[in-house]
Structure formats: structure tokens, C-alpha cells
Amino acid sequence: MAELNSKIPKGQLAEKWTNYKANTNLVNPANKRRLEIIVVGTGLAGASAAASLAELGFKVKNFCYQDSPRRAHSIAAQGGINAAKNYQNDGDSVYRLFYDTIKGGDYRAREANVYRLAEVSNAIIDQCVAQGVPFAREYGGLLDNRSFGGAQVSRTFYARGQTGQQLLLGAYSALSRQVKKGNVELYTRHEMLDVVLVEGRARGIVVRDMVTGAIERYAAHAVVLATGGYGNVFFLSTNAMGSNATAIWKAYKRGAYFGNPSFTQIHPTCIPVHGDFQSKLTLMSESLRNDGRIWVPKSKEDAEKIRQGKLKPTQIKEEDRDYYLERRYPAFGNLVPRDVASRAAKERCDAGYGVGDTGLAVYLDFSDAINRLGKKVIEARYGNLFQMYEKIVDENPYETPMMIYPAVHYTMGGLWVDYELMTTIPGLYAIGEANFSDHGANRLGASALMQGLADGYFVLPYTIQNYLSDQIRVPKFSTDLPEFKQTEEEAAGRLRKLMEVKGKQTVDSFHKRLGHIMWEYVGMGRNEAGLKKAIVEIAKLREEFWKDVKITGELNEINPELEKAGRVADFLELGELMARDALIRNESCGGHFREEYQTPEGEALRDDQNLMYVAAWEFTGDSAEPRLNKEALDYEFVEVKQRNYK
Amino acid sequence: MDLTLKIWRQKNATSKGKFVTYKVTGISPNSSFLEMMDILNEGLVVKGEDPVAFDHDCREGICGACSMYINGRPHGPDKAITTCQLHMRKFKDGDTIVIEPWRARPFPVLKDLIVDRTAFDKIIQAGGYISVNTGGIPDANAIPIPRASAELSMDAAACIGCGACVAACKNASAMLFVSAKVSQFALLPQGKPEAAERVQAMVAEMDRLGFGNCTNTGACEAECPKEISISNIARMNREFLSAKVGAQIPKEQAGGF
């Protein structure tokens, strides 16, 4: 077992980042020009990092699989971004944002990283406003805030229901400026297939040009992965269709440890599944829980009648409704954290109180808010979300309650990184959702945007210099090195192998079957028997995939079936690691709920004695079991408590 | 629902394309248009035929990737949505649906329904930004911005860069796209210092890339999935004129600013 060094700076919590910045090695401007950095991904983390590094003077190459950097899936984030500005004078502070994030993550995140995140949060808002991000404002011209789950203050900045879009377009504009200046070379419609290691350090990547099919090699002094999460392992999720794990999975197979792979966020407010042909799930922003009240009927008879279409929700009298979140968690009510809200919905539906055709839905009701504030106010706050809902479900949420159900949304797990955001491969960094670092076992709403931009704008540009400072004498690498050739051959060989299977079943059919296994056994409720079963079934499915997958078209052209096949092949390996991780974690924490470990009231039961660690998995070979390394989590500054939202 | 689809098939950028007719059956009215396309493609793959290639990603109307010209209209018959938000309940059983890629010279077809929209990125690179580096920024509340300006700016900033405006325009004009970005910044105090340079650089790049002129038919606004207002074009024209009249020549014309 290798020693995991998280490189947390010494000193008091509030001094760590300041001390780090004061003592870290920097690279002088003349040397920056000679150093090249590859950034994979153009979402909030990738675009902000590429732009900021280029502004500093580094030569940056930035890759994305989409046709434009602006389409990265950060664009779809709706609700908002947190910051500890305390503009509302409601008692917020850097410490409180830090504390809420640690507690929301159920004490499975690193104190020092989370504190730094809270510390830089304010600068993100300043930066975005300067870029021309049109945040919502009060009539006096100052910035407006809303509240989100897991917090008792209003610290969320937003741009209607399109905050992710506006922040991404801000980062994209900064990136575009550097492209024009010649400091960033942009490679769109390029998918990373593998990372290249030379003498143990990350020195480049192998990519596929998705238009010509050409396999290409690129070299650099350091490689940054900002490739997002892996929720699509479940087939149905709120991720984009193309969101994939290939970059981080290949890095794992080259020696980067994978942190807490089983920590998945199931978002409570998504539009329920409507049929077998469905391709993805749509999120309804958590901000809706500010004004919407969640309920199911009090009696199973009423629920049954609703499912059969004999009764409408508006016909259920107030006293016959069970506002179960308000009942169970009076202090936070409808604004409990996501994992708590999701599990509570599942609990009601499993108990027979679910609504909709399938019984797998609960109501999110705005009638009280409309009566209190008027339709106009609600329309101003959520108009675009209501419109989106109506387009999909064909019901008017102003008149009848929305139906919602939890869906896979975000992965807290990801590549293990140290305080500098470097993986266990020297020179390979992971930022944004691609790393594991800041959200513990559960991410709070409006914190993903904060983390992506914190990593890209304000953390990586400092920490990467500490590594690059001793690389200034290293000349530019040739992609003719044998390591590059060999990695390219392996990547190309794998694609050829996929094409040569020439089986009978489509890629999507395998992906759907994997999704069913994952949702059933590695989803919202997990248990030992189910997880063991999942490990066996995923292995069987993987074997079947490599014997019977059918891919049409050619290697050297635009071939979406081939693209999907490569990604699903990786999901078929990653899914198994997720199940293994969930199996060793004999506790319930955050989004990880092991049915064996709960209080008599059905709340999550952690085991801080034995499991207060980051599970960092190490690849040991295709036919060998992965090795578990542990990074103990020391809570030096925060008192660890049972989470209580009651 | 049973449907007949007439779909533009084109192997790559250099080959000639043609319409091919397909039948799909048993489509649920609750499925989305792209799910209907998935079902068609799944069937084609099983038969060993090449599935129809199309751009798509978020499938919730915000990434701007999807780009189908359906029955003569970008993003199809429904108002204010993208192709991925279009649902089959908007069609009738037995309908014939014609599906084409965006047709505009600056957006060459790469395969089937996929077009190359890097021209839009190039226009943004020419000046669609405020020149601030990361860090050293004054407090976000240092400059109050009237709520109405912020809201109008947001209206313009809602553009998803899908290119429907260009596809809808008989001149393949990109004025709605460009004016949305120009307006977003022109309406904010942060955007003022570079307003004159920005509008000139972006318009010059738009012209260089071969987009056509605006003849005020309003087709772009009518087809825009985000309902970006044509009044942004008027604002851009004003900005452009006052930049010309002001006659401050940008120092770094080719190098950005």
C-alpha cells in the first residue's frame, strides 16, 4: 500500500491557504512561456483553468468532445452558486459556509480543502460580475440571493434558472479571449482516450478526432483533467448524453487512485421516468424547494386512486396531505439536503404512497406560494422551469402540483487528489466534478458551480506552479517517444477490437442493462447481498459486451456508435468499482445509504470509529481485484456530530 | 404513432447528400423528438445500417447542440424550444416529417444532420468578452446596476448559440446571435469600456466568415428557441454606428484586446 500524502499545509484552518500561497514555488514569466499545459474539458473547471493559466502566460491546449466549449454540461446547472458574501446580513461567513459544506457532506470531506473553497468563494462572484455575468439584482442595483438546501442563510447567487449557463459563458468568454491571443489552442470534437506517462509523470494524452477518426498524440509538461462526473454509469441521469468517465477511468488504470467511487448524488427534484424508451432525466432546480411544498396523500387509498387516474391531487383536502419533509424535519422542512430529501421520497413511494402512473413520484406543490405571493412573483422566479416542465409532462404546474422523483445527478467521488489537486500520478491534476475532494458523501446545492470555478480560477493556477517550478529545464516533449507510440497503439487497438466484435446487441441495450443493475443495487438504497450480486452481474455483462456488441460504421469517420461503445466499455468497469466501494463502506453516510445501517427512525447511521476515511482505490490489473488505500480524515477544527436537520 | 421520416443523409463534408425515407412505428406521443430518433437509430443498427448522425447533448434545451430543421423550421413546429424539448404529441399519427440539417454556407454539413458551427466560436473570439484577467477584481457590489438593465442583459445573454437564427434567415445572417452578445455587454457598466471596439470586431468577423446581411424579416426572432428579441439587432446597429462616428480606431485590430 502506497503512502497517501494529502499535503495539507500546517497551521490554523484560516491560515492554511494563505500560508500555502506565501510559501509555494512560482514560475517566472519568461519560463511560463516555455511550459505547456493540457486541459481536458471546457466546463466551469476546465474553461476557467485554461483561461486563467493562459492569462498567466502558460501555453495551453484545451480539448472537448463537444462542437464548442460552450456546450459543456456545466451549462445545464440551473439554481445558483454559493458564496460567503453575507450581503443579506443574515449571519453568513466563510466559516459558516465551510461548516455547512462539511456537515452537508456528512463528515467525509477534508477540512482544509473545504475551508479553502469557502475562502475563495467570494472572489468567484467578483470575477463573474466583472466578466459581465448578469446575476439577478434587487431594485437598488445590488445582487440578490436565494436560499438552498442544507443552509439557514441566503447565500446563493443566481441568474434566473440558468446560472450554470451564465457562469460557463463567462468562463468561455475568458477562454475565447485567450484563444484569440494565441495562448490557448482549442481542440473541439476531440475525445481523450488515454493519458501518456513518461518516467512515471503525466506528459501528454492520446485523443481521437471525432470528425476524421484520426488518433492523435499531444505532449505537455502537465495534464489537467476537468472532465466532469460519471453519473451516466446509471444510463438514466441528469447528465448530458455525452458525459463520460473515459478520461478519469484511463487515468485510474494508469495509476491514479480513485476516491470514494460509490458516493453518488441522487437529486430529489427530477421529472419522473415515463417509459422504457427514455434517454435521459430532466432536473427541476432545487431552488423550487424554496417555495414548493412536497407531499403525498396521507392514505394509501387516495394514492391508489390517484395512480389509477380516479382522483386529482387538487381534490385531496389539506388535512389529507402528508407534507412528510415538514413533518420529519421541522427545522429545515422542504430545504433539507438532497440525500435526505431523496431518501424520504423513496421511503414514501416504497411504502405505497407514491403518485403518478408508476407510483414513483411525489408532489411538489406551489399553490400556497401562489396564494401568498401571487402568480406573477412565482412566474418571475421559476417561469422557465415551469415552462420546461409543461413541455415535457404536458401539465400546467401553476394549476396542478408538479410530480417529482429522485434521479442520479452528480458524483462526489472521482480521482483522488491532494491539497494541490494533483492525483497520485505526478503532473496529472483533476479539478471540478472529476475529483473527489470537497463534497464528502453529499454535495449541497449550488456548491458544484462554486467548486468548479474555485478550482479553475483560484486554486489550480497557484498549485500547479509548485510542480512546474522544477520543470523549467525540461524541454518540450516529442510525441515520437516510445511511450506515446505505445499508448496510441493501445488506444487504437481497443477501438479496432470493439469494431471487430461484430455481435448482435446494440451499445445502448448494454448501457440500459448496466443502468438497471446500478439503479437496483448501487442506487439510493444499498445492501450487502445486492452489492455482491451487482459485482457478479456487471462482470457477466461486461464479458457479454465484449462478445456480442454491435457497432456500425467505420473507424475513420464520425461514428457516434463507436464513441458510445468506448464510453460504455469504461462504465462497465467503473460500475463494478462503485459496487466494491459501497460494499466495504459498512455505514450510511450522505448519499451512500446502506440499508443495514440506519437508526430506528430510518436516518443514516455513520461509523466514525472505523470508516472515517477516504477510500482511494488502486488499479492492479484487469484480472486482479483493486487495492484499497485509506486516507484518514482528521477533524481538527470541527466537532463531528450526527447530522440533524430536525 | 406511426410516422414516415424523410431524412437528409450525407456521408461526410465532401460527398453529396440525399433524402432517405424511413418508417417508425409505435412511437409514444410522450416521447421526445430525439427519443424517436434514438428508436429509429436503434432499429437501423440492429439491421446493420448506419444510424443517422445528429448533434445533441444536454437534452434539456440549454447546451445548444441539437440542430434539426424539421418540416421547414429550425427546431420544429413548437415555439420557444429546442429540438430536444420537442415532443411527439405535437405531431399526428401518420404524419410525414422532413428532417434536414441547418442550411447556411458558414455552417458546412459534416455528416447527415451534423453541421460545423465553429464560426460562432470565432465571432466570440473576435470580441465577445470583457477583457479582465482572473483575480484582483473589486467587490461584486461595488457598482450597482439598475435591475432593468441587468434583466435586459440577461434576456440577451440567454442565447444558447444553436444557430437556429442563421438557419431560419434567408440571408443566413448571424445578426441575432452577434447582437445578443453585443447587447448583453452594452447594457452593463462592465461592458462599456470596450463597447466600441467589441461591436466593430465582432461585426467584422461575422462578415469575414460569410454570414449574410439582415433584411428585417424577423424570422430569426420567430424561430429562436430562447426568444431573443430582434430589438437587440437595433441596439447593435446603434452601437456600431456610434462606434464608427466616434471613430476611435482600435490599436490592436487583429490581436484582440
Label this structure with key terms.
heterodimer, A: 646 residues, Flavocytochrome C3, Chain A, domain 1, Methane Monooxygenase Hydroxylase, Chain G, domain 1, five-stranded parallel β-sheet, five-stranded antiparallel β-sheet, globular, B: 257 residues, alpha+beta, Ubiquitin-like (UB roll), Fumarate Reductase Iron-sulfur Protein, Chain B, domain 2, five-stranded mixed β-sheet, Fumarate reductase iron-sulfur subunit (chain B), oxidoreductase (chain B), succinate dehydrogenase (quinone) activity (chain B), 4Fe4S_Fe-S-bd (chain B)
Structure overview:
The complex is a heterodimer of chains A (646) and B (257). With 646 residues, chain A is of the alpha/beta class. Among the domains of chain A are: 268-409, Succinate dehydrogenase/fumarate reductase flavoprotein, catalytic domain (Flavocytochrome C3, Chain A, domain 1); 483-607, Methane Monooxygenase Hydroxylase, Chain G, domain 1. Chain A has helices at 16-23, 29-32, 44-56, 94-104, 111-131, 163-180, 246-253, 300-307, 324-328, 338-350, 367-373, 375-393, 448-468, 482-501, 507-521, 528-548, 560-584, 608-611; strands at 36-40, 59-63, 81-82, 156-157, 184-187, 190-198, 201-209, 215-219, 222-225, 258-259, 264-270, 293-297, 321-322, 362-365, 402-411, 414-415, 428-430, 505-506, 549-550, 613-618, 627-632. In chain A, a hairpin with an 8-residue loop joins strand 20 and strand 21 (627-632). Chain A is globular. By secondary structure, chain B is of the alpha+beta class. Chain B folds into 2 domains: 3-111, Beta-grasp domain (Ubiquitin-like (UB roll)), CATH 3.10.20; 118-246, Orthogonal Bundle (Fumarate Reductase Iron-sulfur Protein, Chain B, domain 2). Chain B has helices at 33-46, 118-127, 147-157, 164-168, 175-186, 195-208, 219-223, 231-246, and strands spanning 3-9, 18-24, 69-70, 73-74, 96-100, 109-111, 114-115. Chain B has a 5-stranded mixed β-sheet. The chains are: A alpha/beta (646), B alpha+beta (257). Chains A and B meet through helix 3, helix 5, helix 6, helix 12 and helix 13 of A and helix 1, helix 2 and helix 3 of B. Chain B: Its EC number is 1.3.5.1.
